[in-house]
């Protein structure tokens, strides 16, 4: 069972006990930074694969959660709807229509880059089909956190699929998708401690039907998408 909370654009009224909720969500996001994870192989200037195959994961910072909540909202996220999806010791944060703010000067360069790369890549690719001329709208899976007791049991895949069903339903209720439009679900995988791509997370999302393109410049993060 997934519970949905919608944060409407330009609404700043804090949730009841919002700070306690954010603290709980942040705690559920914690990972063991002493256990290495598989990384995506990298290459040097001669095309040779570097020998490092694993690295330590990075923690999710508190502000990566709090900035989407009404009481601690950062600009320009107030301009678009956001949604929080809650499951057993797990949650997801989704941003609706980030293409509306992806050129906003108040947005960090990294955030602008990830939104622009996926939105433009998918829509340019789709328009190669001569029967399609409009842009697909986009949502962004900002965070997907599975609590420690739920990891390794297949729950993450089940939870994500339930979240995507709710995301699509909510979007269809707001804006009817017609004329061949699909919904782009963007995602970015945070880099590891030393700036590598987390291969374990990448494989998880690929199994869930996401495709990955280029890394975000200057970081170990990589962006991907899935069409609904």
Layout of strands and helices, then pairs:
Layout: E1 3-7, H1 18-28, E2 37-38, E3 54-55, H2 63-66, E4 82-87, E5 90-96, H3 109-126, E6 138-146, H4 155-174, E7 184-189, H5 199-207, E8 211-215, E9 222-227
Parallel strand pairs: 6-7
Antiparallel strand pairs: 1-4, 2-3, 4-5, 5-6, 7-9, 8-9
Number of strands: 9
Gap from first CA to last CA: 21 Å
| Overall 3D form | globular
State the CATH superfamily name. Gcn5-related N-acetyltransferase (GNAT)
Can you characterise this structure?
The chain has 228 residues and is an alpha+beta fold. The chain has a single domain (3-227), classed as Aminopeptidase (3-Layer(aba) Sandwich), CATH 3.40.630.30. It has helices at residues 18-28, 63-66, 109-126, 155-174, 199-207; strands at 3-7, 37-38, 54-55, 82-87, 90-96, 138-146, 184-189, 211-215, 222-227. Strands 1-4-5-6-7-9-8 form a 7-stranded mixed β-sheet, with helices on both faces. Helix 4 links the parallel strand 6 (138-146) and strand 7. The mean pLDDT is 87.
């Amino acid at each position: 069972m997934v519970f949905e909370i919608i944060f409407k654009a330009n609404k700043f009224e804090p949730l009841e006990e919002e700070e306690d909720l954010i603290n709980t969500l942040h705690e559920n996001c914690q990972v063991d930074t002493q256990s290495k994870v598989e990384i995506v192989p990298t290459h040097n200037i001669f095309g040779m694969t570097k020998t490092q195959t694993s690295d330590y994961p990075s923690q999710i910072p508190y502000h990566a959660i709090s900035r989407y909540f009404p009481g601690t909202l950062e600009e320009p996220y107030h301009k678009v709807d956001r949604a929080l999806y809650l499951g057993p010791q797990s949650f997801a944060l989704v941003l609706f229509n980030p293409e509306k703010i992806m050129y906003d000067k108040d947005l960090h360069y990294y955030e602008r880059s990830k939104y622009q790369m996926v939105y433009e890549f998918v829509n340019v690719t789709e328009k190669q089909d001569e029967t399609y001329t409009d842009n697909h709208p986009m949502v962004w899976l900002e965070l997907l956190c599975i609590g420690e007791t739920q990891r390794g049991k297949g729950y993450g895949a089940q939870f994500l699929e339930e979240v995507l069903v709710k995301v699509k339903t909510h979007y269809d209720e707001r804006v009817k998708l017609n004329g061949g439009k699909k919904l782009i679900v963007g995602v970015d995988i945070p880099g590891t401690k030393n700036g590598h791509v987390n291969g374990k997370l990448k494989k998880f999302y690929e199994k869930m039907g996401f495709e990955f393109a280029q890394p975000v410049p200057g970081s170990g993060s990589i962006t991907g998408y899935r069409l609904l």
